[in-house]
């Protein structure tokens, strides 16, 4: 499915054919946007017909434009290999390294160039087309990136470095030389880990991380693995090539030059000293010009032949000049910031960038084609070319004069044609398209409609057939188009066009459906998922952290330590290593050191992280204070539990609508989603659909960080409801958010018969009246609005789904109205930072909860700067964003001075188009400003916190917050979430008044934001907010005391237990189980070297041993360890067996399974008479004491007079540790567990 042959259909147009005749030389073309990609395809085809086998470099003003051209060319020339050469996200002098992903994509593009040059079969098969933004094209390329040889790993062979075979140890050293970072656990591109004979590595350009199993020095197997759960996935891979992870490698020559620079740049001594030692440091790429000679222009790396194409040369030249200016400004701002403690910038001398003229000179004798959008009249042509001679390439960035083409009078060639014409009166794009196509066909034109997805093409055909038009879906365009037929094809066109000469019309989905086309998301690897529960995260536990032990109370983590414990029985008794977490508690005796608790690593489920306010007082072990605090808290949560159970009962009693399963249109809508869904999104969508298909009303909370895809879940749920003839209401807290969601839903529902309306102060009285009438009559399917939706005047004919966005923003005054709406209706509530009250309901099961914790593809953490305000910093930050054609939010929260602030910004950055938005503007003024910013008519939006929720503008990737010390923590997090919603690197500047000292709380708030800048940190910020503000501000003073006393996590669990009690359900009380057997069951250091990863493995076994965990979980943990670390030793296998035994014992309510001397002791036990007889028969010498509910069984191979055989596990004379665990499990099963099947007369225990 492609648009192959479109340029051939246009060759019948004289001006297009005339343009193709210029394929052999320099030329400037005047051509409309829609015809640019077909012209480029035609020029490439013409040169290849003439025998040229070179590669083509397309330079555009921005990366977004470059990628759009690349996709269009790939559709027009399916046999072409297309790639984008991306720019660094950083400026040359900044002490920031480009992301490993960017480095990988650049290396992949350069590798394709080199392979194309060296492999004639590739160049014969089809052209190579590389696209680049002007920023990427003007940055000289390091020979380390252009000339590096990869490390080659092939199954069944030893690794090869530069053609020579080597082993795993040498490979590890080479990866360090290639600037990979050695870590315990691989989660990001550019990292590697070695564990025994297993290498985990995440190549910068790869979609997934790779796991390489070695047998000696030979590669045994190569597998992909998921960094989210560290498990292998998919079929084995035969070949893996590892390329450098950075563009500056610390070779001997580079280290020597770094040493030479040390005396010249003392301010950079720390960075340079590490580099001389061979340690890669953040921002070292900024020293490339000083450390690496022979930086090459991109055009100089192209194979012979081909051509260079510049799209919109006026904008490209302008941006080249802006790039140099912005770089200089940033350097000045950085030097100024360095005077108040910031890092010293790297003195690059010049801007570190080439000029367009230098780039052109390096292209040598290749044709240089310029495609401009300016239409030149014939009278202007003489003046346009007379000022420069044929070879006048000197003198800055002005393009040199173009050579005269034989048979062509003018050096500037105009291609006739323009955009698809539209009436400005009709707002329905599809209706306009149908009428327009009909008229064109009647006038003898030929027509093509193209869309990215098969579903949209089929939808367009159905709409055309309904009007009586002849519509035909084709895989590829025929050489001749039949008159009177509209051809529909799946493909990507940059824009639609109309060409009068060829009488040819092409409409894209943007013109036909009125939807904005978004570049296809790239399927790739998800980042590591975060833990949803507030458990102790062993990967982040550090000495000094406060934890809560269910039995002993609040303590402080000290360290992970190892102790020798007795193992074996009788003659085989010995010592084994066991690992413990050391927790400190308050001293039970005044003046004495703190008490210490050694928690076995298989009991980590007893610990949770403490959240609840200032640093808490440590509990006393065995004291009454902890039990007292728990007793008070349990009493306090009873009232909350009663209220929650009432809500639950009312919901369960309400009759709901069971929605139908997905329709073909539902699948069509979902296929048209332009991005790759994250794993969390897919899971959540399934959960929501499952809830909707049940007859009980749905009440689900969707918690997800800003920009993590909550809206798409809402879109799909709303569409599912409409498919069943139900109405949908979406309630949002602000008018801006209503407008934003309306735009999103409108784009997603384009082409489907869904009546969508908005209801907020942005609508006129007439529009609001029409919407209300439509809701009552059932003609409006979906309404999106603010609290106006809660008014008594809003009547729904058949409301089926209510979506509430940012639910915590609705106050008490809205609750009664919401309750009326909610009766019998499915509810989907969404929040980025759920308040504790919302969490209570979700955690206790009153509401279902889904979490979006996986960032969408290609997202980067937001670079966060905290510092004093300076004009230089503001000017440079804005200019940096304008350079990549982005937009800027500037938040100033005082309406009285916001005008002066905007004027100051306009003065600092005269080229920026500045707009102002605040809540005191009239509805229509505010709507117009936001709409204009959305449509990119303004570059900088100076606003109050009205943008805190509601603006989802992917093109805005810098936010500057003035007087950031005056805002709350969650508010600052929400504001920062306005940026970073696209593949571009985002920047957030939190500025404060340099003349006023920061308060302690303000300082802590800003420090928290700087520390929690990773994707998905919303929950961490919310919990920190709970600490800083105190729970009393959120839950009331009385509750806050109880939360501080027991910690937020245990407090929520207590509510859950109380709720279950009132619901009449069994409350699963987890009692502390002491399980001590004389066996060596631990994770050896030589199996898992990293302490934190051993702790993580222990925690997984601990979680698998929980009584509510599925029985197979222990085996799954063992499988995971085998996958990640290789075949486990016997100690780990025994640890798995002990975990399985712990789970069985916990289910039976045992609190002790202990080997004391030669005897196994179990308690509490209720042993039926039949089981006592079984004990006497199977375990001679066994003893049951009814008064203490204690069971004692002689250990096998022990020294007791009554020896117990290894019943059920063989008759080995000297039992090993594994036998003892199996034997104990058999004792538990045969004496305490109910017999399987209906024959079991009564349970063995109580």
Strands of the widest sheet, in order across it, are: 3-4-2-15-16-1-17
Mean pLDDT: 81
- The CATH architecture term of the largest domain is 3-Layer(aba) Sandwich
CATH class group of the largest domain: Alpha Beta
In terms of per-residue confidence, which ranges show pLDDT below 50 for 5 or more consecutive residues?
Answer: 377-410, 517-534, 1028-1038, 1199-1214, 1238-1246
How large is the radius of gyration?
35 Å
Number of strands: 45
Helix content: 25-40%
CATH third-level topology of the largest domain:
Rossmann fold
Largest sheet: 7 strands, parallel
CA-based shape: globular
User: In total, how many domains does the architecture comprise?
Assistant: 6
Strand content: 15-25%
Structural class: alpha/beta
Tally the helices. 40
Distance between the termini: 68 Å
Walk me through the structure.
By secondary structure, the chain is α/β, with parallel strands linked by helices. The chain folds into 6 domains: 24-31 and 52-144 and 295-414, 3-Layer(aba) Sandwich (Rossmann fold), CATH 3.40.50; 147-289, 2-Layer Sandwich (Penicillin-binding protein 1b fold); 429-513, 3-Layer(aba) Sandwich (Rossmann fold); 646-852, 3-Layer(aba) Sandwich (Rossmann fold), CATH 3.40.50; 863-1013, 3-Layer(aba) Sandwich (Rossmann fold); 1074-1231, Aspartate Aminotransferase, domain 1 (Alpha-Beta Complex). The chain has 40 helices and 45 strands. Strand 37, helix 29 and strand 38 (940-943) form a beta-alpha-beta unit. Mean pLDDT is 81; it is low at 377-410, 517-534, 1028-1038, 1199-1214 and 1238-1246.
